[in-house]
């Protein structure tokens, strides 16, 4: 069983909390200046990348170099790809209806409420979900079969997420598809290939942190929390609520898995 440098990891936890807070506070300043809080979605991936870089730097001499580099690189690649995708997708758009609805309920100052609930809340989630990245970096265990299995799960998730995003972007870019429901490619197998891929990414990173029963148990909450956020939190649940009245969506939902990819039920039908 490998040793985890718990005391050094404790210092790292404080430093990464500061890194996540810095990214989210800087984003808050930009959001207030522009009057556009949807940019916090771009900061989500950047904050994870910042946590990974800080952890890689601070863990030098405390963990296995191969594991440190692998987990940092995997997190940065995922985080920056996601940030770039969201930035490109949101160009030219106004405020996200989710944030408008949330801030309309603010009990007092909308700005302070946005800071507390939207920005600091997401910063806390970044820190908590990134625990596997931090714990893996402070383990002395060399890369093993489980670590490479985790890398394979991560890569599968990244591919699902990136391919799903690309397929949807191309579908929306075609004027002939205006008003239609995307039910092609990966979207014929799951209504949320991007969310499913996101979940796999974090289960893969979790496996990289499983270098003993103690770290495995200590950071298990992180991939569970990410999966819950994607399925019953602000991801799948809110998007499907928004899409529910769209013509053809009920039929699409009836034949297509809600999360885990499965063959479509019955004959796929193109929406008129």
Automatic annotation (TrEMBL):
Pfam name, any one:
DUF1295
Question: Which ranges does the record mark as transmembrane?
Answer: 6-30, 42-63, 113-133, 145-164
Alphabetically ordered keywords of this record = Membrane, Transmembrane, Transmembrane helix
User: Matching PROSITE patterns, A to Z?
Assistant: S5A_REDUCTASE
> What name appears for this protein in its UniProt entry?
DUF1295 domain-containing protein
Species for this entry: Streptomyces roseolus
């Amino acid at each position: 069983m490998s040793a985890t440098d718990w005391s050094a990891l404790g210092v790292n936890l404080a430093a990464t909390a500061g890194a996540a807070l810095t990214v989210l506070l800087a984003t808050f300043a930009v959001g207030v200046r522009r009057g556009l809080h949807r940019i916090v979605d771009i900061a989500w991936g950047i904050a994870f990348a910042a946590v990974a870089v800080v952890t890689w730097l601070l863990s030098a001499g405390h963990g296995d170099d191969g594991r440190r580099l692998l987990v940092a690189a995997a997190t940065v690649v995922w985080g920056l790809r996601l940030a770039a995708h969201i930035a490109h997708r949101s160009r030219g758009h106004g405020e996200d209806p989710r944030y408008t609805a949330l801030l309309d309920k603010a009990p007092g100052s909308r700005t302070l409420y946005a800071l507390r609930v939207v920005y600091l809340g997401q910063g806390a989630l970044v820190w908590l979900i990134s625990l596997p990245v931090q714990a893996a970096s402070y383990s002395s265990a060399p890369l093993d079969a489980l670590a490479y299995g985790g890398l394979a799960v991560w890569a599968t998730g990244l591919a699902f997420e990136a391919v799903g995003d690309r397929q949807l972007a191309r579908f929306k870019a075609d004027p002939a598809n205006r008003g239609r429901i995307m039910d092609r490619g990966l979207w014929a197998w799951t209504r949320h290939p991007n969310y499913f891929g996101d979940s796999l990414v974090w289960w893969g990173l979790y496996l990289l942190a499983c270098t003993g029963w103690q770290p495995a148990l200590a950071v298990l909450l992180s991939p569970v929390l990410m999966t819950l956020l994607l399925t019953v939190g602000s991801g799948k649940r809110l998007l499907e609520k928004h899409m529910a009245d769209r013509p053809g969506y009920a039929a699409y939902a009836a034949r297509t898995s809600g999360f885990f990819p499965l063959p479509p039920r019955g004959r796929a039908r193109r929406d008129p």
